[in-house]
Amino acid sequence: MMKLLDMESNDVRFVGIHGMGGVGKTTLAQIIYDRVSNSYCRFEGSSFISCIREESKARGLASLQKQLLSMIIQEEIQIWDRNQGDRMRKKMLSNKRVFIVLDDVDSDEQLTALAGDRKWFGPGSRVIITCRDSHLLKTHEVNNIYKVEELQTDEALQLFSLSAFKKTHPTENYKDLSMDFVEYAQGLPLALKVLGSFLFGRTIVAWRSARDQLEAIPNKEIMNILQISFEGLEDFQKELFLDMACLFQPQYRLDNIFLQTLESFGYYPGINIDVLVDKSLLTISDGMLFMHDLLKTMGHEIVRRECPEEPGRRSRLFRVEDLYHVLKNDTGTDATKAIVVEFCPETKDQRLNARALSKMRKLRFFKFHHSQTLKWRGKPLKYMPTNELRYLEWPGYHSKFFPSSFQPKNLTVLRMRRSRIKQLWKGSMVLDNLKVFDLSYSENLIEIPDFSGVPNLEEINLEDCRSLCELHPSIGSLKHLNELVLNKCSSLEKLPDLSSLECLTYLEAYETAITQIPCANLMPKSIREFSLQGGKLMRLKSKDPIYDIGSLVEYRKEGIYDYVEATWIDVDSKGENILDMAGVVVSAMYDDLTTISIWSLGFYIPEWVQYKSNGSSVKIDLDANTNPEMGCVFFIVCDSDQFFSMDYGHSSISSLFKGWNIESSEMGLTIRFERDKEYCVEYDSLDYRLMDVSFSKRIGFWVYIPAVLRLPFLDIRRVIKISFETGWYYFQGRVKPIEVKECGVHFFCPDDANSKFFNSIAPFGHSGSSNSDFHRRFVGYMRKKKDMKSYHETDRTCVLSS
Fold this sequence. Notes:
The chain is of the alpha/beta class. Among the domains are: 2-147, 3-Layer(aba) Sandwich (Rossmann fold); 153-217; 222-301, Arc Repressor Mutant, subunit A, CATH 1.10.10; 581-799, no CATH class. The chain has 20 helices and 35 strands. Strand 3, helix 6 (108-114) and strand 4 (126-131) form a beta-alpha-beta unit. Helix 4 runs parallel beside helix 5 and helix 13 crosses helix 16. It is globular and about 100 Å long. It holds the Pfam family NB-ARC.
């Protein structure tokens, strides 16, 4: 803060202090004012005007102008109206070096009357303005703004202890209770002081009672301070804030679907979320929206006060007991706009009256997570009003069918995970606004509806819908669909024609009953992330392979590596075409050096490989004048039966995808370069994540490294032998060495368009681009990744032996 003030500078400087209510803006300004007033005698006058928001309403701005000038010149002056105050301020302060603090400003009118323009102050003057609204500061060209953050836990505990115990740490037997209150305050100094002062001198029993009371009834003093920012909002901004406080988690991803949901409520979130952020009611970080827990509590309390006695007359229901009261006693009204229940406790006797929903004619948001033992009298969706309904999320929905009367024409999001639904609607339903369709883990779902009346659908998630045998062909007409998830649809045997889905970029369909990889002419050119592996996937019979998809050049992030998870199986007996890729890893290794690591099924080392042998090592002989940009590919072959019958401590497995914690199973590969008996260098290559290999006897692993001479600590022209070590890292960090049956090394010039390597591997060769384009595309891509600081440099080990 002192750096922003820069007291040595001779310019006129306005500095803002910004933050949520109760965070300590005024306290900080007072500390700085006292320090500057006592230490910097060069100021010709100073003034601290506090509580401007309240005082301007009570006394008027002319009275505050009088107070400001009287404090600076140290004598009483008379100001009868604001215009006179403006003239006197310009006349009296334009040549004076002054230090002013304007506390709790909430309007541009106040800033103009008390601060005006910089030219109205003498050189070297400083004006500090505390404000909850950062946009107000910016509109007055206050560009130096200090944001006051909440306290860290250790600082918060000290501040709480100073109020509760009059010392910097809690008494021993109050430590745990103190932490409960510190946790509740979430670093807000106001709450820490208020709660600490209230608890000072009280017994442990009283402390426990106060803690329990806070969960039901928030502290009024804290809520009143926080609510000041809320009261300054427009009506529709208040509604947006209350929805954010009551309907969504304290942390929520700011994605397109979320914004479209708010848009459907008429909130214009593009501008009004900014307003809430400016007023310190929300914060945004890394694409996530955050709301302080006490602000969320304030929102809950505002809704509760709408009708303390009868929950059915409140705008939002978010407490289980309130919802049960309304549905059991049939007290629903058209005041209710939203129902959100994240958790319903187990109950055997609870029976809810579905007919109570029919009275909620303005219901637009319904999110209901309930226990399986909950019973209804009647069918809820039959009675649920649909005219205003925008969002429906009901995990575990118990009915098998949608009632024919349920026609939510304005619905934006439909999420019914783990439902018992077999079929939704028959025929075509017109849902022009629907963006998200999620019935994942609905094991009874046998068919999806006709989507021809849902033209704007963007996301479909059908993961683990095990009874689903086929997709309705209308899915191929969804021009706006960008995400399709079909993982673990174990009865799904084929994909429909998706070639017209011009926006589809993300497709996952692993562990399905699909036996053939779809031809490129059935896939959209827009797709950038594609996973199709496991299950019953067999050989590609079509001569039009999937790698003709023009945009499949982006790689899905998995941990620290990038994966293209597709299977290209078209291997001849000589291994001339090694497009047997079950998993591809692309990463930056050792500075900007690209590596492509692939594991393959039914693999044989191609005949054209220069150096190959049985076993785990091969001798090489390179010329000293070898091209420094020479590329290299390393091959190894293992028997798949080495992965079978692994002991996990309780049972054995028959393939790599059966067992505990199998997602962490990896193959590690170490490449050892020997120059002579005195010197060797080892490089740990990328790890391979494996899938079911039980139907293949041989597994191949290989690594492509362009410009291999640029590997650090290594001059491969002097290497005479290369050896390989592999191991399978599986359950709880265990590792099993894997025997290498064959190995090979092949060197080539990356600009050689006739290279055997590029003819075999380049997935772009069939799309009209040259083989050398394959090298350039990957190297260029990875170098861009380096610029974005998103590449990973793998560990390396140098071994010097004597």
